């Protein structure tokens, strides 16, 4: 039944952006299928989030479950699959996943961004047990006040310049901030970071001491042991834009999709008005601050536009029918 249906909208990505969109569309009696492979941050965050209105103190997992429940209760269908291929155009898009093939009149791509985790003895997966927010932090805009009075180490895998800017933001709250430059992160000539009081340590992480998702210490290749109250991960963010590229969508120089004034995806090599009909983008995948409320807002905005577009599509189809009958 799911594979045979021509859905009004398929949403790829069931994080806060996709689920906010699903709720709006299902509430407006649109048939909606949300396809998600379960790798978004809220699926994994076990500790409280403090900046999401209406959900303060709830864990990421509780928020994810509540958003899924609301979308389902409104009538959206949610399935687990990973989409690897998209083709077609407005009116009929075809999506192929690992478990099936799905079709829809319109599309919302809300696949988020991938984040690099620090390498532990050459393997980023060894960091994953600590990425659920025990005492690791990722976003100064979301979390900086949680670092009040704490001794913090910024683990920087990209460039010292980024770590210095993060350290500046965190210093408003933290008691002390040190920087660990690792994974071959770009450094800066000393004269360019003389104005900071941060200690900068360089080294590769050999092992993490800790349990229950809480880091107790980082052991470096050199034998140095680094301890802190909290660890801020400053890493490379890669938009999950493969499906956008497959559709011929335009990307900016950081790999985020370019959208027009009504949120539709712009075609590669064209101006803002030349959008790909029937395709919208929402959430962290857009060039915007990565926060749950912002992701939800952009999902909701796209859904409003999709709903209006589906009304127009329906009217156009009715118009054609009348012309045929008169003819
Ligand atoms: C550790 C951490 C802590 C954070 N803390 C906070 C916080 O305290 N406050 C706050 O406001 N924000 C916080 N954020 C940011 C917040 O989680 C994101 O802004 C938000 O989740 C973005 O929502 P989204 O729906 O755009 O993308 P995501 O939540 O990333 O969801 C995208 C979904 O798409 C799925 N997907 C991707 N590609 C495919 C595909 N091809 N097929 C099927 N499914 C696919 C993924 O599995 C994922 O579930 C935090 C992020 C991290 C990593």
- H/E topology pattern: EHEHEEEEEEHEHEEEEEEEHEEH
Strand content: 25-35%
Q: Report on the biggest sheet.
A: 8 strands, mixed
CATH architecture designation of the largest domain: 3-Layer(bba) Sandwich
Assign the structural class, choosing from mainly alpha, mainly beta, alpha/beta, alpha+beta, or little secondary structure. alpha/beta
- Determine the fraction of residues in helical runs and give it as a percent range: 25-40%
Question: Care to count the β-strands?
Answer: 18
Describe the protein's architecture and organization.
With 327 residues, the protein is an alpha/beta fold. It folds into two domains: 6-114 and 237-326, FAD/NAD(P)-binding domain; 117-234, FAD/NAD(P)-binding domain, CATH 3.50.50. Helices cover 25% and strands 28% of the residues. It is built from six helices and 18 strands. The chain has helices at residues 16-27, 60-74, 140-143, 160-171, 242-246, 292-326, and strands spanning 6-12, 32-36, 77-80, 83-89, 92-97, 101-109, 113-115, 136-137, 151-156, 176-181, 199-202, 205-211, 214-220, 225-226, 230-234, 237-239, 264-266, 275-281. The strands form four sheets. Strands 1, 2, 3, 4, 5, 6, 17 and 18 form an eight-stranded mixed sheet that branches. Strands 8-15-9-10-11 form a five-stranded parallel sheet, covered by helices on one side. Flavin-adenine dinucleotide binds at residues 12-18, 35-42, 45, 49, 51-52, 82-83, 110-112, 115, 131, 133, 138-139, 142-143, 240, 283-284, 290-292, 295. Residues 12-18, 35-42, 45, 49, 51-52, 82-83, 110-112, 115, 131, 133, 138-139, 142-143, 240, 283-284, 290-292, 295 line the site of flavin-adenine dinucleotide (FAD).
